Amino acid sequence: MGNKEQVLKKSANGFKRYLTDWKKLAMHALIGIALVVLAIWAPVPLW
Fold it and tell me: Rounded to an integer, what distance in angstroms lies between the CA atom of residue 42 and that of residue 7?
């Protein structure tokens, strides 16, 4: 059980570090905005 807790703690710390990195957040925001704009500007027909 100790190994599972250690892995969970390491994962949580890594995820926390990932979310507090403003460069990664800014890049994901820009990509998300670009995808939304692309979806509105060039919609793909469903059939």
Answer: 43
- With a CB cutoff of 8 Å and minimum separation 6, the contacts of 25 are 19
**pTM of the predicted structure, to 2 decimals:** 0.54
Dig out the tokens for 32 from the structure.
């998300």
Cα 34 from Cα 17, distance rounded (Å): 25
Query: What is the domain extent for residue 8?
Result: 2-41
Question: SS3 of 43, please?
Answer: coil
Domain contains 46:
no
Q: What is the mean pLDDT of each run of 10 residues along the chain (47 residues)?
A: 83 87 89 93 78
